[in-house]
Every structure is written in C-alpha cells, then in structure tokens.
C-alpha cells in the first residue's frame, strides 16, 4: 500500500510543481468562493494519499478489471488537468478535462460500491473536491 500511496503523491506533486499558476492565473477574474492558494497543496496531498489507498485496495481485489480501467481513466484525466489549465493557460481546456474527470470518479465510486465499499467511500472526498473544482473552473471560464 505504501508504494501506491508514494507513487500517487509523487505524481500529483510532480504535476502540480510542473504547472504553477503564476501571474497569468493571478490576473484572472475569480468567483468569491475561490479558496486561498495555500489550501490546494494540503488538500491535494490528502486526496492523493486516499487515491493511493484506493489504488492499492482495487489492485488486490478480485474482479477488478473494470474498476482498474476506470481508475486509470480518472488518473490520466487528473494528471492532464494542471497542464491543460495552467500549463496551456486555458480554463476552457481545463473544463474539457475536468468534467470527464468528475464523471470518471463518480463511475469508479459506482463500480466499487458492491465490490469494495471502502474504496468507494474513500473516493467521496475526491469527488466532492473535484466537483467544487469543476464549479470553480466553470466560473473562471464564464468570468473571463
């Protein structure tokens, strides 16, 4: 499990460090509910730990093929969002990535509900945060 957690946290940290918001992001109009920038790193660190636990749980489950595919899809979309939004400085492209990301997370929760309820529940905070991030991303698109 530790290996899965370390891998998830490391990939998330690498993606975040490679795609810093910078001045461009600071110049955007943002909604009143935009959180302070310091909150993102600790929230994502906790979420990546949970994601690592879920990957470990799912990896060792029987009949895990469909759930591993859904996990891989959400992981790829998760890692694409920062380069799309920050790297390419495109809130629209970020929205194009984050909506299917949220859908894939919800599909993973649904697919895991019977097979591994613990994994399903551990993905709920992730789904809630990505739902919030989707609303934030959409708001930035509409305000700019």
Automatic annotation (TrEMBL):
Record-annotated membrane-spanning stretches: 35-56, 68-86, 92-113, 120-143
Xref: CDD domains: TSPO_MBR (cd15904)
Subcellular location per the Swiss-Prot or TrEMBL entry: Membrane
Cellular component, GO annotation: membrane
This protein's UniProt keywords: Membrane, Transmembrane, Transmembrane helix
Topology relative to the membrane: Multi-pass membrane protein
Pfam families, per database record: TspO_MBR
Any one biological process term the GO annotation gives: tetrapyrrole metabolic process
Segment forming the signal sequence: none
Family statement: Belongs to the TspO/BZRP family.
Name of the protein in question: TspO/MBR family protein
